[in-house]
Amino acid sequence: MATRLQFENNCEVGVFSKLTNAYCLVAIGGSENFYSAFESELADVIPIVKTSIGGTRIIGRLCAGNKNGLLVPHTTTDQELQHLRNSLPDQVVVQRIEERLSALGNCIACNDHVALAHTDLDKETEEIIADVLGVEVFRQTIAGNILVGSYCALSNRGGIVHPHTSVEDLDELSTLLQVPLVAGTVNRGSEVIGAGMTVNDWTSFCGSDTTATELSVIDSIFKLREAQPSSIVDEMRKSLIDTYV
Amino acid sequence: MSSAMEQDTGMFKVQQTIGSVLCCKCGVPMPPNAANMCVNCLRSEVDITEGLQKSIQIFYCPECGCYLQPPKTWIKCQWESKELLTFCIKRLKNLNKVKLKNAEFVWTEPHSKRIKVKLTVQAEVLNGAVLEQSYPVEYTVRDNLCESCSRFQANPDQWVASVQLRQHVSHRRTFFYLEQLILRHDAASRAIRIQQVDQGIDFFFGNKSHANGFVEFLRKVVPIEYRQDQQLVSHDVKSSLYNYKYTYSVKICPVCREDLICLPSKVASGLGNLGPLVVCTKVSDNITLLDPRTLRCAFLDARQYWRSGFRSALTSRQLVKYFVFEVEAPVGEATVGGQKYALSYVQIARESDIGKMFYVQTHLGHILKAGDQALGYDIYGANVNDDEMEKYRLRVKNGLPEAILIKKCYDEQRERKKGKPRAFTTKKLPMEMDESRGGRGVDPEKMENEYEEFLRDLEENPELRFNISLYKNKDYQESETASMTDGEGAPTVPIEELLADLELSEEEEEEGDDEDEMDE
Questions:
Q1: Mutate to test the interface with B, among A152, A169, A170, A211 (most CBs of B within 10 A)
Q2: Family, per the entry (chain B) (predicted)?
Q3: Are B25 and A170 within 8 A, CB to CB?
């Protein structure tokens, strides 16, 4: 189910949190309402970790991860790294990478099987991504934008991309990612979907400006209505080659 | 989202089909835009016409059909015209904040005193989306007489400046010619009223500068002397504003074409001893005097003329018909002012007294032949009431010339053409006749004859036609017998000189009136 919330009166929820199938990261310094929203959905299922990265609160945009691992930029301090390693489950590999483009959340969009990467990413980084996250990496653009992490939100069951994406691009991406995709908006017409919402296989969180129409689009593309946490986390599901009509 | 996907594998570019997203507010599928909202939702969110004027009052003068542009200008516009639209849009404030795309009138009942204009404006909203919106503006029209109309209403005969044009001669030829000149140059277009009086015409203007302009025009075409006077009408003590009525009293010099003049000795010696008997051949802004004996010409401009102010001894009224019996070979030739003259001796006799033959010199040797008729002044038999002439007669030894021929007479040829309409017509100024003098006003039959003579003059003299517009007479047909004339026919205006008249419906009526007056 999609939930609407705000972080300190700001609707860009995807900036201050990162949600995967195995864990959830949230920024520190916000009100308890923010955490309780997450906890009410996720408390017994996956750990919710409060952290900062490089002293900043924009953790959603700085790190990229899935159930297999987490990649953090070189600006992460040792304490933060250690804190993460301690708090997250053991099967999640936390790796700090030296990369010129340090906002990994903006440059990498991934689910548990496949990832889209910024076209200018280092070859090494690409290899690390493939290794740590266990995914297949594709360098792509979305609607002509190279910041793939910002302009799309991806889960194992579906994805939303920038509204100006053409039909041909949509088909191409869908074929690559092997999930149904839709071009849509979040937070009352905002195109920056990756920053506006965060999603995993059974739940998602959006900014409170999100209209009912957008919410219904999110619910249907990510198939959140019938989803239960347990059935997803344990299984490996084969995604369908499908385009959402 | 459309499922029609054509991956066009062209060489360089893949075809991009724009998909559709759902409007974030209402959920209708729409192509994506900067706001990602459908137009209706966007319109409901943002109103770009906020703060723009939607109703305004304008003032209209019902007499002259003008609209007021404050503070003082009145602009004449037709109902629902382009000028009115421009005027209405100009009256709106704040319109520079948005971009105006289109404006048009919405129909309103003319009696409702409302004008409705639908404006389409464009402005940028939210994050770069440009929104276009139409909205109506209502103008309430209020009636308010403009200043000139209210002044006119108070006193319809109100004029500010008048030009009283006079020429103290017994004929009206100059005024006919002037009338045509004025029409051609549109000099009296701003006159409120034109009135014909006994020896002249009065023009009334609403503005002193208009009257001044008219007097300047007259100065260029005839030799005039004028004086200007003013009369105080009202006086605003507080702001020291004085309202005057201005009157220009303009006198045209009484010397006309074809007049015989005996110059006073001072003037004659001033012009290089020009023989005191001279013929006036042309009057424009200066007077051309031709000495028929020496074929010398002199020009007098207005100032020079009015310094001496001599009058003609004999005018064209006193022209007498002569028969020409014999023309000798010219003894001298000259071309003066574009006109050729040849000096030769002729034998002539008056029509009324053929027995008495005269042997005189004439300057018309180039056009006279034996058997012609000519018009000239009969000095032998005339009783001339002119001091200068008397003085000259006493001074000169051989006596005055017995006759001076002025022009060739085409009466015989005209007989053949009698009853047929002319090839051209002329227009007339809208003049009022002077009723106030009772019977002493202008005699209409005399006017007719004079006008007929004026037209004959036009036909005979191409240089007179130079500044005048003549219009084609629609009823005139080339007669078949015109080609088979024995000898020369009466001179006519060649068809190339005639202008085709404007075929406006009101003009046609005027033309009809002209023709009725013109046909013999």
A1: A211
A2: Belongs to the NMD3 family.
A3: no
Find out whether B473 and B499 touch, Cβ atoms under 8 Å: no
Tens of pLDDT, residues A106-140: 999 999 999 999 999 999 999 999 999 999 999 99
In this prediction, residue B489 carries a pLDDT of: 56
The domain ranges of chain A are 2-229
Q: How far apart are CA B391 and CA B387, in angstroms?
A: 6
How far the first Cα of chain A sits from its last, in Å, is 21
Characterise A203 by phi-psi region: left (phi > 0), alpha (psi -120 to 50), beta (else): beta
pLDDT at A230 over 70: no
B350 vs B320: CA distance, rounded Å: 7
If interface means Cβ-Cβ distance under 8 Å, which residues of chain A face chain B?
163-171, 182-185, 188-191, 211-214, 216-217, 243-245
Asked if B17 and A214 come within 8 Å (Cβ–Cβ), the reply is no
Q: Among partner residues A168, A211, A243, which is closest to B14 by beta-carbon distance?
A: A168
Report the alpha-carbon distance of residue B360 to residue B349 in Å, rounded. 10
Assign a CATH topology to domain A2-229: L-arginine/glycine Amidinotransferase; Chain A (3.75.10)
Report the mean per-residue pLDDT for chain A.
Answer: 89
Please name the member of B7, B24, B35 whose beta carbon is closest to the beta carbon of A213. Answer: B24
Residues found in chain B: 520
Measured between beta carbons, the chain A residues lying within 8 angstroms of B35 are 189
Mutate to test the interface with B, among A145, A164, A171, A190 (most CBs of B within 10 A): A164
Parallel, antiparallel or unpaired: strands A152-154 and A159-161:
antiparallel
Token pair, residue B409, equals 């007479």
Helix or strand run (H / E) with residue B106: strand B99-106
Chain B residue with minimal CA distance to A189?
Answer: B36
B478: confidence class by pLDDT, cuts 50, 70, 90: low
Q: Side chain identity at A206, as an amino acid letter?
A: C
Within B198-338, strands assigned E span: 200-205, 224-236, 241-252, 260-262, 277-283, 286-291, 296-301, 319-327, 332-336
DSSP state at residue B323: E
Convert the pLDDT of each residue in B168-208 to its tens digit.
988 888 888 888 888 888 888 888 888 888 888 999 998 89
- CA dihedral angle for residue A226, residue A227, residue A228, residue A232, rounded to 10 degrees: 140
